[in-house]
Amino acid sequence: MTVRSEKRKMLAGEPYRASDPEIVADQEAAAEWMQRFNATTGTAERDALLRARLGSVGLGATIRPPFHCDYGTNIHLGACVFLNFNCVILDVVEVRIGDGTQIGPGVQILTADHPRDPAERAAGLEWGRPIVIGANVWIGGGAILLPGITIGDDALIGAGSVVTRDVPPGTVAAGNPARVRAR
After folding, report:
1. Residues 6 or more apart from 124 whose CB is under 8 A from it?
2. CA separation for the pair 59, 50 (Å, rounded)
3. In whole angstroms, what is the distance from residue 39 CA to residue 51 CA?
4. Higher-confidence residue: 17 or 183?
5. Strand ranges of the sheet holding 162-163, from the earlier edge strand across to the other edge
6. What's the mean per-residue pLDDT of the chain?
7. Confidence of residue 132 (pLDDT cuts 50, 70, 90)
8. Is residue 1 part of a domain?
9. Where do the Maltose/galactoside acetyltransferase domain residues begin and end (predicted)?
10. 3-class DSSP state for residue 23?
11. How far from each other are the two terminal CA atoms of the chain, in whole angstroms?
12. Do 104 and 141 meet the contact criterion of CB atoms below 8 Å apart?
């Protein structure tokens, strides 16, 4: 029987311990990268830093600093994606953002999840559930996307909304929790 590393468990969306030395080293590397990225003023240099750290970056994708993430390597941006100031992506598993999507300031994209059972939480276990955001989506400032959701192409997410469920393509979701309605 092969024992999987905590990092492999994390990437597979299984319960893992974030205190594992390999995971901590990855978080520290991401923290150093964020310091450089957030201090950089040149567009070309920021673009090079994004391409060096993120899982994939489409042509014309832009992130305005400050930006915060857990690892960066699990984030995939399509072409012409735009993230405004102060976005947070907890990317313990994949986050995919489709072409042309625009994300307002202060948006939080959270794949990290924790056990509901207090004994399991006390044991230090956590896991992640991937988030997929389609193409040409607009997410208003201050929105929060919870673990495991999918937002369909051409959807709109209202500012300040808390998205707890999938959002179908071409719809509007707003409120806390966000409720979906046709456009």
Report:
1. 17, 18, 19
2. 11
3. 16
4. 17
5. 67-69, 87-90, 108-110, 144-145, 162-163
6. 96
7. very high
8. no
9. 7-59
10. helix
11. 52
12. yes
Radius of gyration (C-alpha) of the chain in whole angstroms: 16
Q: Could you report the per-residue pLDDT of 52-86, keeping only the tens digit for each?
A: 999 999 999 999 999 999 999 999 999 999 999 99
Q: Does 183 score more than 90 pLDDT?
A: no
Classify each residue of 148-178 as buried b or exposed e, where b means 16 or more C-beta atoms within 10 Å of its C-beta.
Answer: bbbbbbbbbbbebbbbbeebeeebbbbeeeb
* pLDDT of 1 over the 70 cut: no
Q: Which domain holds residue 54?
A: 6-182
Q: Which two tokens stand for residue 104?
A: 């307002």
Q: What is the CATH number of the domain that holds 159?
A: 2.160.10.10
Q: Any catalytic annotation for residue 114?
A: yes
Give me the catalytic one of 8, 51, 114, 121: 114
Q: At what angle do helices 21-39 and 43-53 cross, to 10 degrees?
A: 170
Tokens of 17: 């311990």
